[in-house]
Design a protein that fits this description.
- It contains 6 helices and no strands.
- The chain is mainly α.
- The chain has one domain.
- The protein is elongated and about 50 Å long.
Length: about 120
Amino acid sequence: MVTAAANLSVSVPSSQGGLGPFEFFVRQTLVLSGVAAPLATAYALALHAVLLIPMISLGLVSLWVTGISLGDIVRPTTAGQATANEEQYSAMPLGRHQEHLLPDEQVQRGQAQIDLKEEP
């Protein structure tokens, strides 16, 4: 029942990560089930931390692996800056952030390294 309430709570408009409604609905469900209010609050906070911390950590690791800084995501850009960023990234050689591209995707982006040696 707690899982259902927690999942439904994220459908309510709230802050990023569902902070607020998640804890409220989990706590209220536990209190209605007979759990003491302080214990229900502690459980709701701990459960949300256990669910969010791994996702945030994996997201930060993914940003680092792809070579994107957190500032690039957070900072608003204007149209001119966006064009400059696109030119900067398209001119970059294949690197950490592009190793995952398949050869066809590399060709479409003009980033394929072509071997011009002719085999006998």
